[in-house]
What does this fold into?
Amino acid sequence: FERYLAIADRLPRAAGASHSVHRAHLGELVDDIDVFVLDGFGVLNVGHEPIAGAALRIAELKRAGCQVRVLTNGATMSTDVTCGKYARWGMDIARADVVSSRDALARALHGSRLNWGFMGLPASDLPSLVNEAVLLGDDARAYAAVDGFVLLGAGDWSADRQALLVAALRERARPVMVGNPDLTAPFPDAFSFEPGWYAHALQDAGVAVPRFFGKPFGNAFEPVLETLDRPVDPSRIAMVGDTLHTDILGGAAAGWRTVLVTGHGLLRSLDVERSIERAGIRPDWIVPTT
It folds into this structure.
């Protein structure tokens, strides 16, 4: 949370709500909201496990006539893989109803003829993003050879690899694209370091000014509107998430309403009201769980 505060001037600006209303769960908002846009980590799952009751809540929202979408900053795996995970958890979420930061990144990379070096995993399906891709590891020569860098997933990234990346950018400036702006993601007993963490470290070091794709940036929110069955008044769309500086800030910047989930994600061990005041980012509603 402190790190989000430190890099806040690099994020979009939005007024947010004037006050927050507390509710027990999303089901109590169906009279106010027509489209619920759900974050993944902290709203549908914590780590590799689903949040209890999330699948039932999605079904409840749909029975009430609401549209449900997922907007996730998870970019390591393809969106098809992400949808398969939701299906295994019994969540009624179609592929067409999921937008990921990876999708926003893919739009920007479409047609690129550069040779990109990727922070990612062997299972990240890099050929689906670009024709020329190198999965970065521990060989400095790979960092020197590529035309630009994409920070996609940090699952096996290390301090040594980050040092190689910094050194390569100091040697020769190149573009840096970030497919997941998150600094961290919630797991049951810890928080991970995500690509956004390493991207801002590059900017701190003065070696790059990364381009971000995903929440809270507008390039993630615009594709969600393209999936809707019909045009919807932005005040009847709610971004639901666990992080003030990505989900809530981004939703407010898009002109949507916002719902902060406090029980599973970044704020689960913090004073929520104090955190809201310090961030200067206030959601319309606060719920303990999905």
